[in-house]
Design goal:
Number of helices: 15
Distance between the termini: 34 Å
Number of strands: 11
Radius of gyration: 20 Å
Bound molecules: calcium ion
Length: about 350
């Protein structure tokens, strides 16, 4: 090769570096999966410190799994994220918006829209930016759009109230919501659940929205807490991110600090360096069902608990539709590995 050509090649590979493995899409790749992610990302620790969690503004606990979930989707070459719709839960809707924007910026994907959804369950039924976006995105591409909702369900139920034909027009609705608290013979890390009778935030921040979806939401798929505790990040994962030292990896490692500390206090007995990958799991299984054991089919209803919260229970009523539920991961190691790669 002539020297000039070699210099041009080297210079062009500096200016336009080859995309990393997760971003390589060949000419024969199938059409991407079109996703809307509805979440309550609580990943901006300075802001969470001021705003607290939604149900307890005095409690400044970050819950960064939503940010990891966004990265898992954004860096899957087979996925096109149409938009991120924000709501309250892990923190406020405003914190979710800012955190989602920060993740997009660090992932080089600032073009993905972030929409403002309900800031309180009182906004159930109000046509927020997020609810309108869901309706428009689904109805303009009938049978193509999938929604992964891993937050309180106000935005999704509101979209359904605005457009009752959504279930016939979305490709799938995946709900990372609720728990059966041992009723399925499955274990759960329900330290809080054992104490008060429930622990899942997504069903309990807006139970009305969940009830509305159970009645009118068509054929959705459930990923309850039983499966959301099946994969984790450890202190070693956090150290590896620090070592990778890209701006994104350093940001994620920094944001994981407070949750590891909190869980260390709650779990005790040396489990302090483990964080459950709650929101990542429904998304990952929605994209690759082979990561999970085959789903159960159950008639699902809501059951009120002694101290006022709700869990899911199996219904005996034949009029209640039977639904698919993923309750156990088959391959947590592959999921954890993919997430590690996508956080760098
Ligand atoms: Ca979430």
């Amino acid at each position: 090769m002539r020297r000039a050509a070699l210099v041009i090649l080297i210079l062009s590979s500096i200016a336009f570096p080859l995309p990393p493995a997760w971003a390589q899409v060949g000419p024969d790749s199938p059409a991407p999966r079109l996703l809307i992610i509805d979440d309550d990302v609580g990943m901006l620790k300075a802001e969470v410190k001021k705003a607290g969690t939604y149900p307890a503004p005095w409690l400044p606990v970050t819950d960064p799994d939503g940010g990891l979930e966004l990265l898992y989707a954004l860096r899957d070459p087979a996925v096109e994220v149409l938009g991120i719709t924000c709501t309250m839960g892990c923190s406020t809707t405003e914190v979710c918006r800012h955190a989602a924007r920060r993740i997009l910026e660090l992932a080089g994907r600032s073009e993905v829209p972030v929409l403002r959804g309900a800031a309180s369950p009182k906004e159930l039924g109000q046509p927020t930016e997020a609810a309108r976006f869901i309706v428009d995105a689904v109805m303009s591409r009938p049978g193509q759009v999938e929604i992964v909702a891993t937050a309180p369900l106000t935005n999704i139920a509101t979209a359904l109230m605005l457009e009752p034909r959504l279930p016939q027009n979305w490709k799938a609705l995946h709900l990372g919501t609720g728990e059966f608290l041992g009723a399925l013979g499955e274990r759960s890390d329900a330290y809080l659940g054992r104490l008060v009778g429930y622990q899942d935030l997504n069903i309990n921040v807006d139970p009305e929205a969940t009830r509305y979806l159970l009645a009118h939401g068509g054929d959705f798929i459930l990923y309850p807490n039983e499966i959301m505790d099946d994969a984790r990040f450890t202190g070693a994962d956090r150290r590896a991110l620090k070592k990778a030292a890209t701006p994104l990896a350093l940001y994620v490692a920094d944001e994981l600090g407070p949750i590891f500390k909190t869980l260390g206090v709650l779990n005790g007995r040396g489990l302090g360096t483990v964080m459950y990958l709650h929101g990542v799991i429904p998304l990952a299984v929605a994209l690759q069902p082979e990561l999970a054991e085959p789903p159960l089919e159950l008639r699902v209803t809501m059951q009120r608990r002694r101290f006022g919260g709700y869990i899911f229970a199996e219904s005996e009523d034949p009029a209640v539709p039977s639904r698919k539920l993923y309750v156990r991961l088959h391959d947590p190691a592959t999921l954890e590995k993919r997430l590690r790669e996508r956080c760098r």
